[in-house]
């Protein structure tokens, strides 16, 4: 039986009567689950339910909201293995990656459960006598969340938990390619005692469900994660409708490899950041910018890692498939473009041939050398396990190349030179800067967001900053 939408505390079929099947990207002939292919009427019903529930939820004490989030996190923890397997089946991630993502969702719910009790304003000294002067943080209202398929439980969790902790009601549209674990979040919160209407989950296309969420008069804020192209449209649509908006978008993330770096260590860092999650991460490393003194050694080390990655279904292999035929085709197209522009295909670039990869959307980890920064492979987001290696003469040129893109999400440097590390942190145009670490991997209690076309540059996600997006401040002058 197809999974249903979650609206006003009930599990309901869509008004359209249509369903969509989600396939296993490691074995496309296998249907994992079916979901509602909802339309505008379903989206409207969800927003109306959230709007009706807003006042009561906003006045629910923060500690009580936190208790519900904590119960939901515990429900997820008790079903971690089941959720991990579901994530692998729908998105294709390797087991360790999927398990880590589910664990992150659990920790996000527990983290914001504690934060719900801490929300408050500030007290200031008034200019007048016999007056109290202070601020109050209040929920923004109804929040619309539109999430991506590449982290199908972590991204909904890190939007949803702070929104609920701050007293907002929520409508959520998960990505159609892998909606299952986001639907499970609704089950967790329902079991945790969330009042009817506070969370509403509607599956279906962004062109109908997402657009209705964005434009509905009762929606006060929109948070979107996805491609830069779609994100710009969401931003324009939301701001035209006078909504508060937050977008987290694509990246073309560099790792700058200094002359002082150990080539083997640097290759480990770059390979982990670029080939992990099959390169399907907005923070994945797609450019290795390498000092000429160690360029050849680094390339040899990186190629060795690319050629020894164990590829196959995520349950028992190191790197799983791409999520869909379209994503695989896009990656193969970029490989062809890179070769046509003069880059040298040094490793990978094709479909792996093994018993484990006979079915599914698998691709080899790919390394290009002789790459110029002006090439499309060095400028555009590929969203597959493809790394462009660019040779530079010195640190200054490497930093210029690192910043020579329209994106600015995550960046790292591998160096033993503390001066270079500090200068990199100061001058890199990215929202996340790492020293001697891969570009992927984020802590949940610190802000996350990008520069330039990697985000709307309005509000950050996660940590205390993540709560700011979902609250609005009132200043009180209390004379007595």
Write the layout of secondary structure elements.
Layout: E1 5-7, E2 10-12, E3 19-24, E4 27-36, H1 40-58, H2 62-78, H3 80-91, H4 95-115, E5 123-124, E6 131-139, E7 142-146, H5 154-165, E8 169-173, H6 180-191, E9 199-201, H7 206-215, E10 219-225, H8 228-240, E11 244-248, E12 253-257, H9 263-275, E13 285-291, H10 295-307, H11 325-340, E14 344-347, E15 366-369, H12 376-379, E16 386-392, H13 395-402, E17 407-408, E18 410-414, H14 418-427, E19 432-435, E20 451-452, H15 463-468, E21 471-479
Parallel strand pairs: 7-8, 7-10, 8-9, 10-11, 12-13, 12-18, 13-16, 15-16, 18-19
Antiparallel strand pairs: 1-2, 3-4, 5-6, 6-21, 14-15, 17-20
Note down, in words, how this protein is organized.
The protein is of the alpha/beta class and 480 residues long. It folds into two domains: 5-249 and 455-479, Aldehyde Dehydrogenase, Chain A, domain 1 (3-Layer(aba) Sandwich), CATH 3.40.605.10; 253-435, 3-Layer(aba) Sandwich (Aldehyde Dehydrogenase, Chain A, domain 2). 39% of the residues lie in helices and 22% in strands. It has 15 helices and 21 strands. It has helices at 40-58, 62-78, 80-91, 95-115, 154-165, 180-191, 206-215, 228-240, 263-275, 295-307, 325-340, 376-379, 395-402, 418-427, 463-468, and strands at residues 5-7, 10-12, 19-24, 27-36, 123-124, 131-139, 142-146, 169-173, 199-201, 219-225, 244-248, 253-257, 285-291, 344-347, 366-369, 386-392, 407-408, 410-414, 432-435, 451-452, 471-479. Strands 14-15-16-13-12-18-19 form a seven-stranded mixed β-sheet, sandwiched between helices. α1 packs parallel to α7 (206-215) and α2 packs across α6. The radius of gyration is 23 Å and the shape is globular. The model has no long low-confidence stretch (mean pLDDT 97).
